[in-house]
Amino acid sequence: MVTMDSITLIAESLKRQGIEYVFGIVGIPIVELSMAMQAAGLKYIGMRNEQSACYAAQAIGYLTQKPGVCLVVPGPGLLHCTGGMANAQINCWPLIVIAGSTFQDHEGIGGFQEYPQVDAARIYCKYAVRPPTVASIPTHIEKAVRLATYGRPGVSYLDFPGNVLRATVSNDAIFDEYTHPKPPLCYPDAESVQKAVELLKNAKRPLVIVGKGAAYARAEEPIRQLIQQTNLPVLATPMGKGVVPDTCDQSVASARTLALQKADVILLLGARLNWILHFGRAPRYAADVKVIQVDVCPEELHNSIQSAVAIQSDILPFANQLLNKIGYYSFGKNSDWWKILKQKCDINRRTVGEMALSISVPLNYYSVFHHVHEIIPKDAIIVSEGANTMDIGRSMLHNILPRHRLDAGTFGTMGVGPGFAIAAALYCRDYFPKKRVICVEGDSAFGFSGMEVETMYRYKLPIVIIIVNNGGIYSGLDADTYKDIRSEGDLTQITPPSALTVETRYDEMLRMFGHAGYFVKTIPELRQSLADALKITDRPTIINVIIGPTSDRKQQTFNWLTESKL
Ligand code: ADP
Ligand code: MG
Asked: Is the model's pLDDT at 564 over the cut of 50?
């Protein structure tokens, strides 16, 4: 009888289903599985925390449309991973999580790291299963990959008890495995496209909003053409940036608030009307705004407000059909709408411009980002997280290519940066060897997953980490106040919850590998260190940029989160 190990069966099945990368942390009972994966030709990246492994696996899914695998140990391993699973599911990114679980004959009597894993995983997943037999493993791996990528992308979870990972099965018993084709494209109905054309043509203040669903859909070509041909004002969501270049004439990013508030017809392409888009409701929008909503997921249609036209479709065929039907229509350059939008863009750019050009020390966010933007390659993948660091960076660091920005996303998760950067750097290594990854982190955000610098070093990933360091969450303390506080009283009572240590030398982390990072306080130092860091191609670098502890955003008409006092 010819038999096969279950671990080889899992590894080869994943490989056949198109999986390329596995991110994980080994331990009992998955050590042998990780080696079987390498033997099957899967690329295995050992990370330092399951959360980061999970972030990396989902970022590779977003970048390649093929889910990455996150491989973890039972109990705490899987629980550490659930933050990442929720993040992927909420971002609508494909991901496969595989966990070992306690030996089945130890279940119920306090097995090592025993936990109801399939139940726990289910709420973060589209599909969660413990394959009932070894012979059925390929069937469930095929299904896990298919469900992660078909329809609205999301998470699949596969559970393998220790005894199953040590089992063998007769080759004859294994169910025949098939591979599925790429997800089928969902086409819009002609009548809805016609309605959309009419609404857009009759609009006085039209606006196109491009979300990360459009980025995931690879719909950049027809959307770019549509915007160019129709001259419609366009606004990208944070990770929708780059589908249409931020630098194009039709981008009204600098007049975001006004554009949302005054638009009478909005074409919403692969974005949800959630908190990121202020729910589509007044006062952030006109109460009678007409939304043309295009989404692959029918359950998303009419969510939060009723859409004027709701279209279940992939963005790519929809954009192609719209382009076709809208003909030579072009929205007037000299219209009142364009005039007020341009005017607002000019005013906002001027306000920011003054702060951006300041070279006074301590530096401010705008000046740091202005120079970072000038020096980094225009086609770099930008990873960004933090509060102000991410918010201000979003407007100052342009993306001219789609899927070139990875940030805290729909779930607002801090700690994603290093994992995302590792995935992006592997993607560059394997598909675009000259492309760079720039990871722009707030000092607080960096703290969540900073140890992944070791992973970056081990795999020779040339990630440039820029830490915008204000010594705190939102804001920090100045050096004198910090010193005073530390010389008196109970620190747990008097240290502001938002404060971190002043001028922490995150750059010194590179000493762990015998290298120096960059400690930067002035613009010339920043420019020089960035130029030097970009020359390093076989390891990560850290540029630790000290900015004023209370450097802030320019005054906003509305705060991003209106409920927050911040
Ligand atoms: P953003 O954060 O950019 O606003 P969201 O994640 O809120 O974007 O929304 C993305 C939307 O795109 C989701 O509702 C998802 O269902 C949808 N989507 C994902 N892939 C596609 C696709 N290929 N075609 C159309 N819509 C898609
Ligand atoms: Mg900070």
From this structure: no
